[in-house]
Amino acid sequence: MAALLKAETELWPVDKLILAYFGFAAILLLIWWTTIPDAPWLLGAHVAAATLLAWELWHPNRTSWAFRHWYPVIYVAFCYKEMALLVPGIHPHPADQWLADIDYAIWHAHPTVWLERIYSAALTEYLQIVYTLFVPAVLWVAWLLWRKRRFTEFQYYAFLIALGYLVSYIGYLIVPARGPRFLLKHLQHAPLQGLWLFQTMQGNLDRLESTAYDCFPSGHTELTILAWWGARKVRNSLSWPYFAYTLSIIFATVYLRYHYTIDVLAGAAVAGVLLVAAPPLYRNLQGKRGLQVGRS
């Protein structure tokens, strides 16, 4: 496969997208240099990651084929982790109360508190499993395309998912919020309880997400909708399980007190916009080599 990349020394659309985001993040780090913790280390990490990409691009080797296709998983994950440092340094005043007020104006109640009337340990366990499987569910579509050697479609799906994640990170910077399980904790009448794995799954997610301001828009909603679209491209029969999973995770985001409903609506709206805007953007980034991808 490395030999195939010897003629593939141009930037792919996903490369351009990630490098553009790195440039955006670098500007933020320089502007808020004194208020962002570990700004020098973060800037250095961006430079190192971009340098590694350039090396794999211009010096094809035995690792290049797999790296060029799968590196966005690692790079996008790094961009998520740095939100815990960027958001407080750039926007120190969370927007949780504003989001909660919007929810209350819509429903005349706080949805996470209202949902207490249907709580059950079994439902909580199921929804926490659904929520925890979010990243594997998104990546599973990519793996199926890879296994089928449908590399053109894989590259577009990787671009779409990376775009979805990075757009949501910009939302976190503009509207930073930690979620109703923190803001509205004093209004809840009882903590969530599952059956067997709930506490372990929730604790592991908390450690992975650190002090995240990752509510608006709901990335779980947005990316799951995009994965549902991708599953349909793999094969039509796969779209039905993903449709059921999408409905479950949307409900889980509010039931488990991770998100306000306005976050969910925003995530669904962003997904809809990206499904329309991503194909022409992808073709434009490919330039003369643009492919007819991303269409129904």
Mean pLDDT metric:
91
Radius of gyration: 20 Å
Roughly how much helix do the residues carry, as a percent range?
over 70%
- The number of helical runs is 14
Biggest sheet statistics: none
Give structural attributes:
296 residues, mainly alpha, 14 helices, 0% strand, disordered N terminus
Walkthrough of the structure:
This protein has 296 residues and is an all-alpha fold. The protein folds into 2 domains: 1-92, no CATH class; 94-296, no CATH class. The chain is 71% helix and 0% strand. The chain has 14 helices and no strands. It has helices at residues 13-31, 39-58, 64-81, 83-90, 96-107, 111-114, 121-132, 134-147, 151-174, 180-183, 198-209, 219-234, 236-255, 261-286. Helix 3 packs parallel to helix 9, helix 9 packs across helix 14 (261-286) and helix 12 (219-234) crosses helix 14 (261-286). The two termini are 29 Å apart.
